[in-house]
Amino acid sequence: MDNIDKIKESIEKVTNDDIFKIEKIGAGQNNSIFKIIGRKNTYALKKYSNTQMNNRKNREIFAINLFKELNIENVPKALHDFKGESLVLYTWIEGKTKTSFTHNTLKKFSDFHININSKITEAKLKEIPEASETCLSIDRIRSQIDKRISEYKEIYSQEPDLKSYLEKDLIPLYEKNIKSIDISLYKKDLDLKDQAAIVSDFGLHNALIDDSENVNFIDFEYFGRDDPVTCIANFILHPGMNLLKDEADFFIKNILYFHKRKDKSIVERYKDLLPFYSIRWALIILNEFIPEKWKHRKNSGAYLGQDYNIIKKNQLIKAKKLTRFTLPSFIKL
Fold first, then answer.
1. Does residue 122 share a domain with residue 14?
2. Cα separation of 303 and 105, whole Å?
């Protein structure tokens, strides 16, 4: 981190604390986290990727401020935005990221979504920006899918395995799904009254859980307004989640039951659109095949020391698993 002495001085001024240690504790694909230890308190300093600093940083600060207004307590507080910099100082939260759920912690994930949306008025919802890559209509979802397929077609000559998977598996399934539902039902953007505030990147990887199973949520760079079905799809389809059938069933039911009190079409919409979300996620997983995106991931340190060909092979396996996804049969609603 550049200008470390200047940053330390700024933090001391903001917190009225004597900072004696700054320790880098983690780096993701889009940001880095520093643990700031002072005589009085400990803080978290988040450094955002410069490529999308303003959008992601501003979106996260918006979410944190909204949660404060709604009295949502199991999130960090923003202490200082370093204007013009890719840095924000947050309160420190104890806990660790986990790789599996207990029933108690899983319930707290659905409760978090429900708690936010039970407190938001329609007028307040309108003030929330649309989520990143929002899925408010079938046309918006298809636009994202078509764009990604076009990107991959440009590298067909270098990636025969990718070409085979897309042409023999994903694209035929995509075309079959289009014919299997009444597209006209979902052409228009979902009515505002049926939309929800969602954390698009929502899962175990963005939560800190302590020994008492208290769950605190972090990382709101993709927060925004979208179809609540998007919340369900992103949670259960994220490749890092590896949910058991009963766990997915529990989360789906909680979210659907909450929203269907006023959104009478959500269950059918979920059943009709989930296959498209599955294809969308399969294509997201294949990002490593795109040279520019691979360069960004590599520079972030996400795949330090790993063989690129093996990484691509593993991502292809994950994508194939998603295009064979049959979750709608899991539940009876």
1. no
2. 29
How would residue 292 be classed by pLDDT, with cut points 50, 70 and 90?
confident
The Cα 170–Cα 176 span in angstroms is 10
Q: In this structure, how many other beta carbons lie within 10 angstroms of the beta carbon of residue 261?
A: 8
- The pLDDT score that the predictor gives to residue 257 is 96
> For residue 27, what are the domain limits?
4-91
The residue from 25, 56, 91 where one domain ends is 91
* Residue 27 pLDDT: 61
CA 250, 251, 257, 258 torsion-angle sign: positive
Q: Which of these ranges, 203-212, 272-281, 293-302, 308-317, has the smallest mean pLDDT?
A: 293-302
Determine the angle formed by the axes of helices 171-180 and 266-285, rounding to 10 degrees: 170
At 45, which CATH number?
3.30.200.20
pLDDT at 315: 95
Closest residue by Cα to residue 207 from 111, 311, 78, 70: 111
3-class secondary-structure state, position 27: strand
Residues 198 and 223: beta-carbon distance below 8 Å: yes
Q: How far, in Å, CA of 215 to CA of 111, rounded?
A: 11
Backbone torsions φ then ψ of 264, nearest 5 degrees: -70, -15
Same domain, residue pair 78 and 124:
no
The answer to whether residues 205 and 218 touch, using CB atoms and an 8 Å cutoff, is no
